[in-house]
């Protein structure tokens, strides 16, 4: 469905993408996971025919993104990271406009957007600029789906959206995949969203670090992982990073995730924390995707 071969893209001296290759199968919910500046948006713009790579090729449905861009644009939906609909048009007017652009009608493909539209309908006369963040997101998704695309690209669609709207959005993506078999490619900096995808690619500094199912990526973690909670995590983190025998130490929410070199024992670590007047708990835990991502970044 989507085949990316050795794609590279630079902006003057900055290399945004560095020899990227990926294959995404039809009907998959594929996640491109990485922090800001990793190259996610650049790759999306190439795949949606808005940018030309310096090197390499990309094909969607056996169509080349450079030579067949007109055919591709009729068969994909794209929701950019920044809200880009017409803010002076109402909800209904935006939907009608995008339907006309693709030579269709809202009624023709209403079943595809029904579950999302029912949440928007009470605000259908409201200007897009006056919608909440979550409602803007739902409107943008409806407009991206109104022509029944075969592939849907969503660039950081839940950025800045409240937790309830985030959950609703991902529930809608799962329904679309199940009922309409749409191939969906979504980028996000949120590692917890990676677990909701069928397959993910971890990207950093324009390079792909790993491609696999979320579960298999978590299994790539190579160290024994410990979770530490203290009465002052920030000071504890600074101390831990200065200790001998510490392989890695990162803040994770209200705890610290830590790995040790072979020479370091947990008992030694506990003794040092106690000697520095910390109240703490420490336990062995299973790694998640974010732990693996941090480990892979260290190796680069």
Helix and strand arrangement:
Layout: E1 2-11, E2 14-24, E3 29-33, H1 40-47, E4 55-60, E5 63-64, H2 69-73, E6 76-79, H3 91-101, H4 110-120, H5 133-145, E7 151-155, H6 163-180, E8 183-188, H7 191-194, E9 199-204, E10 207-212, H8 214-218, E11 225-230, H9 233-242, E12 246-252, E13 255-260, H10 266-275, E14 280-285, H11 289-299
Parallel strand pairs: 3-8, 3-9, 6-7, 7-8
Antiparallel strand pairs: 1-2, 1-4, 4-5, 9-10, 11-13, 11-14, 12-13
Helix pairs in contact: 3-5, 4-5
Describe what this molecule looks like in 3D.
With 300 residues, the chain is α/β, with parallel strands linked by helices. Helix content is 35%, strand content 29%. It has eleven helices and 14 strands. A six-stranded mixed beta sheet has the order 6-7-8-3-9-10, sandwiched between helices. The chain has a four-stranded antiparallel beta sheet with strand order 2-1-4-5. Helix 3 runs parallel beside helix 5 and helix 4 runs antiparallel to helix 5. The relative contact order is 0.14.
In round numbers, the mean pLDDT is 91
Number of strands: 14
% residues in beta strands = 25-35%
Main pleated-sheet profile: 6 strands, mixed
Strand order of the largest sheet: 6-7-8-3-9-10
Helix content: 25-40%
Number of continuous helical runs: 11
Give the radius of gyration. Answer: 22 Å
Q: Characterize the overall form.
A: globular
Q: Which H/E pattern describes the elements?
A: EEEHEEHEHHHEHEHEEHEHEEHEH
Output the structural class: alpha/beta
Low-confidence parts: none
* Termini gap: 30 Å
